[in-house]
Every structure is written in C-alpha cells, then in structure tokens.
Amino acid sequence: MKRLLKIFVIICVCQSNNCANQGMPPGGPEDKTPPEIIHTIPEINSTNVPRTTEVEFEFSENIQDNSLKSLIFISPNPGKGFTIKAKGNKINLEFTDSLIANVTYSITLGTGIKDLRGNKLKESYTLGFATGDRLDEKQISGQVFADKPTEVTVWAYFYSDGEAVNPGKDQPIYVTQCDNEGKFKLSNLASRHYRLFAVRDQDKNLLYNLGREQIGVTSSDMDLTGKETHIQNRLFRMMEEDSSHLKILSLDQLDRRKIRVRFSKPILLEPEISNSIILYNHLGDSIVVMNAYPSSDTKDIWSITTPPRDTVNFQLGFKNLRDLYGRSIQDTVNTNFNSVSNPDTTKPVLLSVTPPDSSQLVFPNQPFIFTFSETMAAINDTLFTVSEDSLNPFTTNWKYPYQLEILPEISWEGNKWIQFQLNEIKFRDSAGNVLEIEKTHYSWKILNPDTLSSISGSISDQDSLGQGRFYLQLEKVGAGIDEKSVVHIDSTFYLFNDILPGKYILSGYRDADKNGIYSLGSTFPFVLSERFFVAQDTILVRARWPNEGNNYTF
Questions:
Q1: Which helix (H) or strand (E) holds 318?
Q2: Taking residues 327-355, what's their average pLDDT?
Q3: CATH 2.60.40.3710 at 350-449, yes or no
C-alpha cells in the first residue's frame, strides 16, 4: 500500500511540473518558414508622403537585428544620413534630414534579413513611394548567372552618351539584390537612360573593388525615357577583372630547342599565337618560333619550341596576347637569356587519350584525341593501324603541335568496338626522339545510333545590325561538365546530332568581335559584353525522336 502511495505522489508531482511549464513541446518540426513583410509605413506605391515620415517594415515574425545596414538599399542614396532601429518584428528607418521633395523613393530589403531561426527572406522586397503626387513606376528586370547569386546586387546608374560611369568611385542610384535563381527587378525607376552592373559587393560599401570583387557588365545600355515601362531579360555573367600588368616570372631552358616560360597570369591559346612571340639573337636577327602552347593543367606556363640555338645571348618578347576572357593584354614583355648548349634528347610521352581507353559511351562522330608532352613531328601517314573488324575509314589531323585527332570519314559503326594500334616508331618529336610508350593498343565501343536523337531549331536576332556567328551550347541537366556540346552557325538553322536521351538546356551568344570566345566586356575602359541567352525551358530528348522547332531570339 505504501509503495502504491509513493508512485501516486510521484505521478502527481510530474503532472504538476508539466502544468507549471507550459510552452512549445520539445521535438516538434523544425521552423523553416521564411519571414514575410505584412505591413509597411508608408504603404507601397503611396504618393504625397510627408517628408518627415519614418519608414517602417512589419514582419510576420521577430527578426535578427544584426548587419541590417548592409542589407537595406535606399534610392536615392542618402549616404550615412539615416539610422536603423529594429525591435521584435519591426524595422524602422529614421532619416537625419527631411526626404527630398517630389521624388520617388525605392527601399529594398535584401534576402540576408533573417528571423530568429535563421530563415532568410525568400526574395528581396522593394517598397516604393513618392513625396510628390507622381510615382515613378518603370522597371528593369533580368537574371545574373553566377554561383551563390544572392550575394550579387545589381546597380543602376543614370547615363548619357559620352558620360563616364565608374562603379569604383560612384555609388549607384538604384540597387537591388538577386534571388536564389539570380533573378532581379529594379522598380520605381525614373524616366532616364541607365547603365547597369552586377556586383558581388563583398565589403558592402556600394563601390566596386577592381581585382578583388566580381562584376558583370551589361550588353547594352537602357532607355526608359519613352513609352516603354518595363525592360526585361537583361542578362549578366560574372567575371574577375585583373588590372595587374603581365610579367615574365621565370624562364627555363630544357635544352637548346625548348624554352619554358611562366607568366604572372594565364594566357589564351590562339591559332596564330607564334606571331605574338618575338625571338632575337645577339646580332638582332629574328629567330623563327616553331610553336608555343600552354601546359595541360595551367595556362600561365608555356612551352616554346625553336630551331637549335647557339650559346649566345637572346631576347624573347611577347605582344598582342589575350587573357582567358579574350580581353587584350596591352603589355609587351621582354626578357634576355643565354642559350644552353645541351641537345634535345628527351623522349616525348603520351599524356592522355580522350575518350579514355575502353570507354563504352563513344558517339558515332566523336574524334579520338591523343595529347603528347611536347611538340611532335607533324606526319600523318601510317600512324595507326585499325583492326580488321573495324573497317571505318579515318583521317588524322594535328589540331595542335602536341595534339593529334583521329577523325571518322563517315560515322563510326554503331554498337561495335573499334580498335587501333599506335605505331610508336612513327611518333617522334621535332628533334627526332621516338615516343616512349608502353601501351599501344586502344579500343572504344561506339554507341548504338538507335539510342540517340537530335535537337534542332532556328536562331534569330532582333537587332538587324547584329554581326558575328552564333555560338550555341547544349548542356545535359544533371550531367558533369564533360556532357556539353558546342556548335557555331553562320545561318539561322542549328542542329545538335547524336544526343543521348535526357533533358537539356540550350544557351548561346553572338560573337560580335569575331574572336570565337564569349566576351564579358570591361569596366575600365568600358566595353559592353556580348549578348547571350539561356533558354528558360528544358528540351526533352527521347531516343530516335528528333526534337525540332526549338526556336530562340536574341
């Protein structure tokens, strides 16, 4: 009986404690709901707002009050002339001076604002209101293609022809933040001309830091002075500008034919790169540069091959080079060296084969690429022997002095293995050294054509004066970077053949400067980027069912 009484007392005490500690039961679902703005003062799109108004944002729940100043963007920019007060579920903005008369204000809250659980705003929020009787209501919207797009803000400046816009010295007139997909909208804009930049403003000071922060340059300036009220589809790609001068960091001579140079920045490989290299001997005579190319893993280390050099002083110079973004490098760099006398006795080696040996996902028109460690003697006869059951006719082509392609004259036969034997004695470097290699047999299985399909359509340009080829890229959704195809077209029709089933995204650009590379533009001096597009809808491909009529307009 006493034992039962003790149990009864313990149960009563536990129930009493539970009643005294009411609240959220432990172990409930995690709060992942983002906060929302439920009310503002003044109300959105209000006019004739008193110039002494204190702006207030009310949220659906309590919010964190740290770092708010870097997350609130006000246009026109009041500089430091305002304070932020945050308490509970409200944010209040108090201006040091009265608001400007007859002006539309645009206040944007960035997505970095969080509730007490750390949930961020789902998208940036813009409150527009006017101190006069008219509200500016024009808009510009678009998308920034970048990693972590919510860290990117889009800046708008007033612009007129001949007027310099310097995002490194001038703070923007209007600012907005990108959402999780990189989409943005600038609202309540005045009827003016605009120039836009997309900036990853890491120090949150609304000034672009060249060389330290990423930036995206627009493909055209925007005119909102006419009847048009909303300019859409302004697209940006981000880049890292490098203002440093090109330098030669080191020069090594492997022998009297080969030179290895390390630059201070990566250099773009172009078909006529040897024309940008100048070599003089001690008498001032020009020496032929046979070829030059970057190392396979980095573009700042280059190998240069020359005829055998005497042991005298030489001067090596570089001019008219371009960086990996295709931008011209203005610097001309030179260095002097005394040539070594040792002959070239190093045997070349095979660095890679693409696709790798024994691959079973090889397309019917795919080339086989062999990359060597140095410049090879460019002969094409009897380099390979094909097996008797692989009777496809083929040709060989030295794409670069160090890289050989095997190309089918007609498509490789599908659903079969193709086998090649490399005749190593035929492979010699430019000094005559025979290839050093262990494996000489290579085989690949060609895909069955019945498992493949195609994508086609047309490309048009709204700009009747637009120039340059269209370059299109097809990328398989969820695939690695290797599953991409690129075509260039001189007309309006395009075709991607030999496509595996799946979903694809099509993108492209118009090569206005005709350099074969997408040009991202420049801020100093200012150069517009090239126009590009990214299709909003994926393209579904099924085997043996060509997907046609995928038409797009720049």
A1: strand 313-318
A2: 89
A3: yes
Q: Give 360-373 pLDDT, tens digit per residue.
A: 989 999 999 999 98
* Distant-in-sequence, close-in-space partners of 441: CB < 8 Å, separation ≥ 6: 419, 420, 421, 422
- CA–CA distance, 456 with 289 (Å, rounded to integer): 43
Closest CA to 95 of 136, 128, 51: 51
Helix/strand/coil (H/E/C) assignment for every residue in 144-209? EECCCHHHCEEEEEECCCCCCCCCCCCCCCEEEECCCCCEEEEEEECCCEEEEEEECCCCCCCCCC
Instruction: Tell me the percentage of the chain whose pLDDT exceeds 90.
Output: 53
Distance CA 120, CA 123 (A): 8
pLDDT at position 21 is 44
Amino acid in position 395: T
Across 49-61, average pLDDT: 95
Return the H-helix or E-strand segment holding 485.
strand 484-489
> Is the fold of 34-135 the same as that of 248-338?
yes
Q: CA angle 84-90-91, nearest 5°?
A: 20
What is the per-residue pLDDT across 445-471, written as a single tens digit (0 to 9) for each?
999 999 999 999 999 888 888 889 899
Q: Which fold has domain 248-338?
A: Immunoglobulin-like (2.60.40)
Look at residue 15 in the predicted model and tell me its pLDDT. 45
Q: Give the pTM.
A: 0.81
Tell me the CATH number of domain 452-553, given options 3.40.50.800, 2.30.30.60, 2.40.260.10, 2.60.40.1120.
Answer: 2.60.40.1120
CATH 2.60.40.1220 holds for 34-135: yes
With b for 16 or more beta-carbon neighbours within 10 A and e for fewer, the 300-338 pattern comes to ebbbbbbeebeeeebebebeebbbebbbebeeebeeeee
Domain boundaries along the sequence of the chain? 34-135, 248-338, 350-449, 452-553
Rg of the Cα atoms in the chain: 32
Query: Average pLDDT in the 485-494 region?
Result: 76
Q: What type of residue sits at position 308?
A: P
Query: How many angstroms separate the CA atoms of 497 and 327, rounded?
Result: 32
Q: The tokens of 491 are what?
A: 């007309």
